[in-house]
Amino acid sequence: MILTDLAVNNRTTVGVLVMLIVVAGVMSYVQLPREAFPEIEQPITQITTTYEGASPEEIEELVTIKIENKLSGLKGLKKIHSISREGVSQITVEFLPSVDIDNALQRVRDKVELAKGDDFPVDADEPVLTELSFSEFPVLMINLFGTIEPARLKDIADELEDTFEAIPGVLNSDVLGGREREIRIEIDPDRVASYGLTVGELIQVIPAEHVNTSVGGLETGRTKFNIRVPAEFDDPAQIDTIVLAMRDGKPIYLTDVGRVRDTFEDVESISRLNGQRSITVTIQKRAGADIIPISRAVKAALSELQQVFPKGLQYEITMDISKITRLMVKDLENNILTGLILVMLVMVLFTGLRTSLIVALAIPLSMLISFTIIQLLGYTLNMIVLFSLILALGMLVDNAIVIVENIYRHMQMGRGRIEAAMSGASEVAWPVIASTATTIAAFGPLVFWPGIMGDFMKYLPVTVIVTLTSSLFVAMIISPVACSIIGGHGPRKREGKHWFIRGYQVLLRGALAHRFMTLTAGAGLLIGMVALYGRFGSGLVEFPAMDPEHAIISVRCPQGTSIHHTDRIIQLIEKRLEPWRRSGELKYVVATVGAGGEQTFEGASFGPHVGNVTLTFQAFNDRLRPTQQALDEIREVLTDIPGAEIKLEGEKAGPPTGEVVTIRISGKDFNELERLSKQLVQVIKPVPGLVNVRSDYEAALPELAFRVDRRRASMAGVNTALIGRYLKTAIYGRKVGNFRQFNEEYDITIRLPASERSRIEDLFRLHIPNTAGRAVPLSTLGRFEYTGGYGTISRINRKPVITLTGREQGRLANDVVRDVKAVIKDAIAGGAIALPPGYNIEFAGQDEEQQANMIFLFGQALPFACLVICLILVMQFNTLSAPLIIMSTVVLSMVGVLGGLLICNLPFSVIMTGLGVISLAGVVVNNAIVLLDYTRKLQRRGRDVIAAALEAGATRLRPVLLTAITTIVGLVPMATGMSFDFHTMVWTTRSESSQWWASLAIAVIFGLAFATLLTLVVVPTLYVSLYRMAARFGLGGLERGEAAGRHVELADY
């Protein structure tokens, strides 16, 4: 091999290269940003438009539909999902993965601008466009509480918000809970009318008096003065002195018709920590920023500010993703180091210290090269990247084992170190390159995994490909150089074959003597294992079950429920959680009422009728039992709370994919959709294991409509729009300016006092100015009447939709989904659900995502990987039969995969086990490549096919077993959760990350173990059988040596 020869002849240069690799790799590892999960960038934008006081129907008609119509023609559009609720339109626009997010955002912005010119409501706020990013969810959450005044607590929270936003890497900080200060002007409608004034005049006068004006400059000789008219109020009491009008030569002051209150905005949210009123400060990091130094800086700022905190103020960091990141990185680092030591021990036992050191050199050097490339790719050090390194750990030495073993064999044959290094490496170079290429080919298609799951998991194939390519470089360049420097000296005394090799040859002779029986047994084992798993297996899941650290209890009361009534229900839930909190099982209970209800990626349910309770359990290693047991108990004690829908959900593994059961009902008429949704809920609720069944349909907020008598209004000189604006000012209030104090701005609003707007009779006392300037009583212009409507209106791709959701409890998700589909099908067939033409029922969410992932993994990625592997093998062997024999090991590996899942009582995870199967496709063929390649070389040297098979098996037995064992032991810490903690120097038997990766590790371990054993027996047997068949029928395609024509009996060997 030219490169190997060049490296061996330039050993000093290679030594310098090794030093550069070490320095660059260490620097890259230290500088790589750390985070728990990889950043996911999806081309998704959200448009939020606020139109206070508008009903959901008005929001849909005047805002949502207008924007949707403009967006519908966008190129690359995948889905438009809109939610219209009282006062807010929220539209989520999802593009195809190939669309550039920046370009998509600009095109959406252009379309929104066009929609604004299409009779858009003038009172609606400017639509706000945001790019949705998974990396921009809060990474830190700090709860402030104590005995200090609520206003002071809010001020401190605002100060912390400013401090945190100045920290490098912090994108944004928000304050949740508490109430903003407000300067409110409360008017008395009777007194306003008695002076012949209107609310409109007050709205015009106040901003005109509360303003600073810059006049310009005045030059007097050599001096120039700036002239200003400073008229902004610096004390709320000064607003009382505004002159509204003159009556009979006397000024009418604001204090004559109302009063100014330095107060707070209406209660929109309530927050508590472990039963105490609190305010929450959240922190989001920038994409690509390292979460660990951010968290360290935030905690340092808190410690510094704590010195000046008022007495009685306390804080708790109730969420810190950096802690999870540190634990996960430490956990995976321990697994890597433990696996490395295990691999080293195996190498020492099999090859001796000197050879094992040369082989083990491939691990740190390959990883250091990988760290450098990973940093250049802009990746972060997250759990996916770290596990990819663990997965590749055992494979890193495969190439080095084969090359070093062969160099060592050439030394035993009497060659010198330099000659042996070059000839030994060259002899197996192409098989090593081919075996690496087949492994890369298995992982290659995963790079093109579409959708959110693909963005989440793409780091695995890229990292493995980078690491394996690095290991090939080390094995071909550095390992031969190391052998030429510190390899064995001179030929060693040849000894008899090891008892293990002799035993293997006895086994192989027996298999070759009974070829039909051997092959039948292999096929029967595969069929039997598939049948056995189908009968006794644990079923199919998308992701392995996790023991969650966090859970959320979401509460939804009927529309129109006051925030205080919702809070009473939340308090009842908190009371029922006390036993778990007192026992210490629950660390934090954070309750939120109003803003910050049930959160989803496409939007959030908010308002006074919703709330949630976030539960934080003890850390994984501090738990006395699985948290899922506690969640099942908590779910039971919440079932009898009346007046609200209550849903308890533990955090899920992987990226957000929706609920286990997600049913969408679409059609033209929303009333018909409501009827169908109620029927469906009744049909699916009895399904065993289905809990938290909920519809996203919300009944209308109790509504009073003011019906304008247009004839009388016209005669009085008043129009409908004016009436609406005045009613809105009276009830919701209207901002008329900003009050500035201590570098903060607060709203100045004008509004009726609460006592003057609590009854219809109070509103009738309002006067509306007509075109002549006279005040017309509202009571003469129309009447109030009760009306109905919708609480929320959801649309997908411009069609009204109602979505039902639910989750599994005590059963596998796939079994629950299967039963739900069956009962719906039976209900439609039996007439229990009457589905009109044009109405559809479809499954989405996790089921939709799982089906898409299964199609990609097993319908596209695996077949394509096998096809590419076959192509590589055809190029390597220049025949079709040998690649087909080698690919049989992929099928045989399923015996081990299914057997391992049965032994460990694990379900077949579509994502994790599926990745394991695809990984095996590239790994298990490597041993067969080395075995068959040497068999064919021996045939070309004159060996009979049986003699070649026996000698190749004996010669390659050790490297075949070594490559398999090193891969297996490298994954043992992840599969078992046991590793040595190199930070605390103790042996750990529990690993939180192993919950995630165990099924993948088990699949690879058992699959590779069974495939290796079968490879050593079945592959030679199948090769000899096909060879003899080809010779009998005069077919080509297999190697024929000088002794090929002579029939050799097994007894000869």
TrEMBL record:
<dbReference type="InterPro" id="IPR027463">
    <property type="entry name" value="AcrB_DN_DC_subdom"/>
</dbReference>
<feature type="transmembrane region" description="Helical">
    <location>
        <begin position="882"/>
        <end position="903"/>
    </location>
</feature>
<keyword id="KW-0472">Membrane</keyword>
<feature type="transmembrane region" description="Helical">
    <location>
        <begin position="384"/>
        <end position="408"/>
    </location>
</feature>
<feature type="transmembrane region" description="Helical">
    <location>
        <begin position="332"/>
        <end position="350"/>
    </location>
</feature>
<feature type="transmembrane region" description="Helical">
    <location>
        <begin position="428"/>
        <end position="452"/>
    </location>
</feature>
<feature type="transmembrane region" description="Helical">
    <location>
        <begin position="12"/>
        <end position="32"/>
    </location>
</feature>
<protein>
    <recommendedName>
        <fullName>SSD domain-containing protein</fullName>
    </recommendedName>
</protein>
<feature type="transmembrane region" description="Helical">
    <location>
        <begin position="960"/>
        <end position="980"/>
    </location>
</feature>
<feature type="transmembrane region" description="Helical">
    <location>
        <begin position="506"/>
        <end position="533"/>
    </location>
</feature>
<dbReference type="GO" id="GO:0042910">
    <property type="term" value="F:xenobiotic transmembrane transporter activity"/>
</dbReference>
<dbReference type="GO" id="GO:0005886">
    <property type="term" value="C:plasma membrane"/>
</dbReference>
<feature type="transmembrane region" description="Helical">
    <location>
        <begin position="357"/>
        <end position="378"/>
    </location>
</feature>
<dbReference type="Pfam" id="PF00873">
    <property type="entry name" value="ACR_tran"/>
</dbReference>
<dbReference type="InterPro" id="IPR001036">
    <property type="entry name" value="Acrflvin-R"/>
</dbReference>
<feature type="transmembrane region" description="Helical">
    <location>
        <begin position="854"/>
        <end position="875"/>
    </location>
</feature>
<feature type="transmembrane region" description="Helical">
    <location>
        <begin position="909"/>
        <end position="932"/>
    </location>
</feature>
<keyword id="KW-0812">Transmembrane</keyword>
<feature type="transmembrane region" description="Helical">
    <location>
        <begin position="1000"/>
        <end position="1024"/>
    </location>
</feature>
<keyword id="KW-1133">Transmembrane helix</keyword>
<feature type="transmembrane region" description="Helical">
    <location>
        <begin position="464"/>
        <end position="486"/>
    </location>
</feature>
